[in-house]
Design goal:
Shape of chain A: elongated
Order of helices and strands of chain A: HHHHHHHHH
Largest sheet of chain A: none
CATH class of chain A: Mainly Alpha
CATH architecture of chain B: Orthogonal Bundle
Number of helices of chain B: 9
Number of domains of chain B: 1
Number of domains of chain A: 1
Distance between the termini of chain B: 51 Å
Helix content of chain A: over 70%
Largest interface: A-B, 40 and 34 residues
Oligomer: heterodimer
Helix content of chain B: over 70%
Order of helices and strands of chain B: HHHHHHHHH
CATH architecture of chain A: Orthogonal Bundle
CATH superfamily of chain A: MetI-like
Number of strands of chain B: 0
Radius of gyration of chain A: 21 Å
Strand content of chain A: under 5%
Radius of gyration of chain B: 21 Å
Number of strands of chain A: 0
CATH topology of chain B: MetI-like fold
Chain lengths: 215, 215
């Protein structure tokens, strides 16, 4: 074994880390927005909209991610980066929408009815009654969804994006030191997971002071 | 006609699909057995060992599956001293990765069996292994079935990652045909359809069972 290879090829790993972080952040933002939208539709929309939302979730959750990426890249002709961001954001949003749907549905109907009967508009009901409670319920599973998104970015390597997993293979191709590279990259993934999980806990603690959960 | 390309290559696709089924079934059976062992060790609270198993499960769950597969791809040759067949690599990777997820499901399943069952079984003279096998696991299994089915679908979809290390499974066959024929829309559309048409009924069934158990 030759761990010195990690020092010599550190720039490759660094580029990989930057690309993994970039992908993760972009996909998190898009899937959060899209997921919130679809989750709200599935919880509060008309029967037809609910059904359409259900089809969206089922279709994108029951096809392998790698097949979806190839579909966007080869069949739809998107660029590599865009195919990955769009493909994984759609998959992420399908999962996140389920989190939001169950979060919204877990708020008791009586709360909404009493808010409305006390004269709040639907918007005010959403902003002052539903969302503050939903956030606390949704936050822990949302952390898991974000962790999933970070892990899923490793698939971007099949379209040639130079993220961490791609660079492992690259170092192996140049030096035959795949084992050392894989170990180093594994440690980096663990650190990223640690940051996401603990960031979620920190945010929960921060919000708990300001919002009291009523059930 | 665009469909001709699929008919012409039906033999290849069928062989690929057989491989996908083989990988999925073998990996799932190993993962299930190994997962039950992991969960039982954790539950047994053996000094150090249980803790170590817990750490291992957490480690695997914060890593991307693709990275785990690569890890075994590079790690197995270091141990055995010769290149490993990609089929073995993918089965080892998938089964160990999913075993940790199954272990968590089994742990939750075991926790759903009331403590009194364990205590009375032990006090009636059964050994720990016997208690697990004849008293706890049969009861726990009923609650675990939906989650285990969800993981089965997830493993089935993930088996497409075998493409990356060069196993001739369904998705890889499709990419080979695509590189000859350049009819991406038909080919990847078909692949996506096959995965969806097989995975969706299972997802649906697992959700139906879940609802029945909750009721």
């Amino acid at each position: 074994m030759d761990w010195g290879v990690l020092l010599r090829y550190w720039p490759l790993i660094w580029t990989g880390l930057i690309n993994t972080i970039k992908l993760t952040v972009e996909i998190m933002i898009f899937s959060l927005i899209l997921g919130l939208f679809i989750g709200s539709i599935r919880a509060l929309g008309t029967p037809l909209l609910k059904k359409l939302g259900g089809v969206y979730v089922e279709v994108f959750r029951n096809i392998p991610s790698i097949v979806q990426l190839f579909f966007w890249f080869f069949a739809m002709g998107l660029g590599q980066w865009n195919a990955v961001v769009i493909g994984l954001s759609i998959i992420g949003s399908a999962r996140i929408s389920e989190t939001f749907r169950s979060g919204i549905q877990s708020i008791h109907k009586a709360q909404i009815e009493s808010a409305e009967s006390s004269g709040l508009s639907p918007w005010q009901t959403a902003i002052y009654v539903v969302i503050p409670q939903a956030i606390m319920i949704v936050l822990p599973p949302l952390g898991t969804d974000f962790l999933g998104i970070m892990k899923e970015t490793s698939i971007a390597m099949v379209l040639g994006i130079r993220e961490l997993t791609f660079q492992t293979q690259e170092i192996d191709a140049r030096t035959f030191r795949g084992f050392e590279a894989a170990t180093a990259v594994t440690v980096i993934y663990l650190l990223l997971s640690f940051i996401i999980v603990n960031g979620g806990h920190y945010l929960e603690g921060l919000l708990k002071v300001n919002i009291r959960v009523l059930r | 006609m665009a469909w001709e390309i699929l008919l012409q290559n039906m033999g290849l696709l069928l062989n690929g699909y057989k491989m996908t089924v083989i990988i999925t079934l073998i990996s799932y059976v190993i993962a299930l057995l190994f997962g039950i062992v992991l969960a039982s060790i954790r539950k047994a609270q053996i000094k150090y060992t249980s803790n170590l198993v817990g750490k291992f499960v957490d480690l695997m769950r914060s890593m991307p599956l693709l990275m785990v597969i690569f890890w075994f791809y590079f790690f197995l040759p270091v141990v055995t001293g010769r290149p490993m067949h990609p089929l073995v690599t993918i089965i080892v990777g998938l089964s160990i990765f999913y075993a940790t997820y199954i272990a968590e499901v089994v742990r939750a399943g075991i926790a759903s069996v009331p403590d009194g069952q364990m205590l009375s079984a032990i006090s009636s003279g059964l050994s720990y292994t016997e208690v697990m096998r004849f008293v706890i696991l049969p009861q726990a299994l009923r609650n675990m079935v939906p989650a285990l089915m969800t993981l089965f679908v997830s493993l089935y979809l993930s088996s497409s990652l075998a493409y990356i290390i060069g196993v001739n499974e369904f998705f890889r066959m499709a990419t080979i045909i695509n590189s000859r024929a350049f009819q991406s829309l038909t080919i990847f559309g078909f692949v996506a359809f096959v995965y969806f048409a097989t995975a969706y009924p299972l997802s649906l069934l697992s959700r139906k069972l879940e609802r029945r158990i909750i009721r």
